[in-house]
Amino acid sequence: MQGTIILKRSDIENLIDMKTAMNLVEQAFRMYAEEQAVMPPKVYLDFPRGDIRAMPAYIKGNVNMAGVKIVNVHPENRLKNLISVRGTTVLIDPDNGVPLSVMDATFLTALRTGAASGVATKYLANKTVKKVAIIGIGGQAQSQLQALLIANPEISEVAVYDKTHESAKTFATKNKALANIRAHSDIKECISGAQVITTLTPSRAPVLTKSMVGNGVHINAIGADAAGKQELETEIITSSAIFVDDWNQASHSGEINVPVEEGEFSKEMLRATLGEVIAGTKKGRNSADEITVFDSTGLAIQDIIVSNYVYKAAIKNHGKYSSIDLLS
Questions:
Q1: Cβ proximity of 286 and 277 under 8 Å
Q2: For all residues of the chain together, what is the average pLDDT?
Q3: Radius of gyration over every alpha carbon of the chain, rounded to an integer in angstroms
Q4: By Cβ atoms counted within 10 A, which residue in 41, 83, 147, 214 is the most buried?
Q5: pLDDT band at 259 (very low <50, low <70, confident <90, very high)
């Protein structure tokens, strides 16, 4: 019997691309909305300087794969020249419990998070998108840019902003072959005229206010990943059409967590989950002038479906990748 396949980041980067990831993530959202996936709540284990999160899921049907991702968040790691966010996924055969693969999930986490924004933009943004803005240039920015360009091939301008302007300038220079991209030192100037805004900051105070956001804009709110974090002013949440990947996760640790905790937002005010929009059971955007917000917390079903694809691609090249018998 084949042992447990071990896949490094360098292996994985050659086995999947963003367009494939977007198709897979869209499928996962749909299957979850159609109750073809099981996803227990994310478990947090807090430490003095960070935390780890355990994210299990089982996708039924023609995917038929289970697993769990363990991901850490240690913000101070960058001061020690260590990665702040790092993940590992274990894929489990749901028919017999055998561990099929252990793989790095650091690259895949960024990939599937970008893919989710791309899918949300496809379904929730206005049809004509000429300018997009990315706020916060960290580890997620590259995959977000890739997904936005795939979702909106007619983009003619990409504006980027980071509180460290040199980071934005470096990112713009690095990606000048992909798009007409410009680094801004002023956040208002950056988002001016943008039809899509993606926020990627760890902020605990709003970086966008209602007065800054024009009619018809779609916002992918990615940065909030723990209770107390908030990138968007509460007035944006209460006056826009809000879509989440999962209500329980979003209300606990997503962009809406602060308005929910303060009693300013409730489940009854939610327009839909993204999966419901994809499945056609709930409506997305109502009008061209409506502001839409996708609160992306990152779901285990996204991790399992992209990891399953990578695993299946790897076993087609039997013998190329390392494997181990964990019971030996």
A1: no
A2: 96
A3: 19
A4: 147
A5: very high
pTM above 0.70, yes or no: yes
Q: How far is CA 169 from the centre of its chain?
A: 23
Amino acid of residue 202: P
Per the structure block, which two tokens stand in for 49?
């300087």
Calpha distance 28→305 (Å, rounded): 7
| Three-state SS at 184 | strand
Cα(101)–Cα(86) distance, integer angstroms: 17
- Which pLDDT value is given to residue 75? 83
**pLDDT reported for residue 90:** 98
DSSP 8-state assignment for residue 317: T
The token pair at 20 is 């494939």
- The pLDDT tens digits of the residues spanning 178-200 come to 999 999 999 999 999 999 999 99
User: Residue 131, SS3?
Assistant: strand
Q: Which residues are catalytic?
A: 69
d(CA 48, CA 46): 7
Instruction: Tokens 């690259």: give the residue.
Output: 107
